[in-house]
Amino acid sequence: EKVLEAGMWDHIAKPLNVGEMFATIAKWIKPKNAPETIATNPTITRADGQFDAKPLGQTAGAAAVTGAPIGLSALVGIDSKAGLATAMGNEKLYTRLLVKFLHSQADFAALFASARADADPTAAARAAHNLKGTAGNIGAKGVQAAAAELEHACEEAVLDEARIDGLLQRALQALAPVVQGLQAFASQSAVPDAPAPQAPASGNMAVALDRLESLLRDSNVEAADALDVVLKRARGTPLEHNLDQVAAAVESFDFDAAVVALRQAREQATPI
């Protein structure tokens, strides 16, 4: 309502559903000379009213996202279909989001306690907001709803500490089975690292680094897989430890920072 009152035409809410985003944009953007490959409807409406993302230019006979892969569908407290829609059906990206949520929110009780003790009066609301947003991204709807209530309570002008404590416990109760399920999922999904290649050729490493940088500049999520290749090839070389900042930036989907860190790593490392 605030968006429309401000004079904007429409609103795309978070967590982002890519199919709904395309449908909303399509209502307002009418290209004068649209290429034929874009003429295909970019979304498919399911019986439940949700949208499944369909890459632009994909033919009508191509497969769409219709269900969760085996393993994901068994996650407790998580609507993996909704989470996959956020990731445009990219299972690898969705798996990374799940693991990132586990690492960043598993100890939410401590994070929130620290935020409440912070001198910044908005810190607690921001912690709850972050839990709400990341839970929504992976389809943890129960956690998302509980975190939203906690956030609203923290934002009220007159803080009711007893109410906040109650809402915090509700959020933690919703979060606990999600974290437990993700811990089991992460351990079962772990793939043993392949043996490090012996004495990789400088040309191969240069090609792998160039490809990684190109993907990072394009903010392409395939950069994560390209980084895995580079990390394996860099084992035992001067480049290995210089890639730590690159890996951290990619883990946070900060591709601009990853590009800068990668260039610095290449400059600091002795030619391989």
Major β-sheet profile: 2 strands, antiparallel
Cα distance spanning the termini:
57 Å
Tally the helices: what do you get? 12
Structural classification: mainly alpha
Question: β content, as a range?
Answer: under 5%
Q: Tell me the overall shape.
A: globular
Query: Taking Cα atoms only, what radius of gyration do you get, to the nearest Å?
Result: 22 Å
- Share of helical residues: 55-70%
DSSP strand tally? 2
Overall residue-averaged pLDDT value = 80
In which order are the strands of the major sheet placed?
A: 1-2
Unreliably modeled segments: 37-70, 191-202
Give the SSE order as H and E letters.
HHEEHHHHHHHHHH
Question: What are the defining features of this structure?
Answer:
58% helix; two-stranded antiparallel sheet; 272 residues; mainly alpha
Describe this structure in words.
The chain is an all-alpha fold and 272 residues long. It is built from 12 helices and 2 strands; from the N terminus they run ααββαααααααααα. Strands 1-2 form a two-stranded antiparallel ribbon. The longest helix is centred in the middle third of the chain and has 29 residues.
What are the SSEs and their pairings?
Elements: H1 2-5, H2 18-28, E1 43-45, E2 51-53, H3 80-86, H4 91-105, H5 108-117, H6 123-138, H7 141-155, H8 161-189, H9 202-217, H10 223-234, H11 244-251, H12 255-268
Antiparallel strand pairs: 1-2
Helix pairs in contact: 4-6, 4-8, 5-6, 6-7, 7-8, 9-10, 9-12, 11-12
Short description:
The chain is an all-alpha fold and 272 residues long.
